[in-house]
Design brief:
about 0% strand; about 55% helix; mainly alpha; single chain
């Protein structure tokens, strides 16, 4: 599918989400988020809408969790001043989700220096004994 076809498909999905009932809108989240940064561009204007902001946040969170964490985090942080106050907790939640997903296997690091490990005298697995 060419670029025009992709954009038309995304535009159709965005229109369907925009006109869907609140309980059906979420069904379009993953399909829209699959478009990555284009999806963010498509839902970004909705961040100022009382009826669409929560959905837009969830699309952006999914894009961030699926490979665009820097862009998604930047857009969500900048939305704090424009978004309805009712969704500020949603923005915080989405930012935490993106952070967790972008570092899924990062172990917690203990505070302080790493413990010292004594070097092994001999690396062979065979036991060393006295020759008789």
């Amino acid at each position: 599918m060419g670029k025009i076809g992709v954009m038309m498909e995304l535009a159709t999905l965005l229109h369907q989400a925009e006109t869907a009932s609140v309980d059906k809108r979420i069904e379009r989240r993953d399909a829209i988020a699959a478009y990555g940064s284009r999806a963010i561009d498509g839902v970004q204007p909705w961040l100022a809408s009382p009826s669409l902001a929560a959905f837009a946040i969830r699309v952006i969170e999914r894009v961030g969790s699926n490979g665009e964490p820097v862009l998604a985090s930047k857009v969500l942080r900048s939305a704090r001043s424009k978004a309805p106050s009712a969704v500020s907790a949603d923005i915080d939640w989405a930012l935490k989700q993106i952070k967790v997903q972008s570092h899924p296997s990062a172990p917690a690091r203990p505070h302080g220096p790493a413990p010292r490990v004594a070097p092994r005298a001999h690396l062979s697995s065979a036991p060393r004994g006295r020759a008789r």
